[in-house]
Amino acid sequence: MTDLVIRALTPSDAALFTTFQDNPYVGRAAFGHAYTSTADGGEYRPDWS
Fold first, then answer.
1. N or C, which terminus of the chain has less Cβ within 10 Å?
2. How far is Cα of residue 29 from the mean position of the Cα atoms in its chain?
3. pLDDT single digits (tens) 1-46
4. What are the C-alpha distances in Å from 35 to residues 2, 12, 16, 43?
5. What is the distance of C-alpha 44 from the center of its chain?
6. Domain ranges of the chain
7. What top-level branch of life does the organism fall under (predicted)?
8. Are 9 and 49 in contact (CB under 8 A)?
9. Helix/strand/coil (H/E/C) assignment for every residue in 1-49
């Protein structure tokens, strides 16, 4: 087993949060917020994660 690795998310990781089957019903998507980076016009900042 490998050791636990903690790293900051990158803009390419945003797809992990938009491919959930129930995406429109959980998290910020439930309130109409798209999970996109600030570079793409969204509110998500990978450097803050």
1. N
2. 11
3. 789 988 777 777 777 766 767 656 666 667 877 777 777 777 766 6
4. 30, 12, 10, 7
5. 7
6. 11-48
7. Bacteria
8. yes
9. CCCCCCCCCCHHHHHHHHCCCCHHHCHHHHHCCCCCEHHHCCCECHHHC
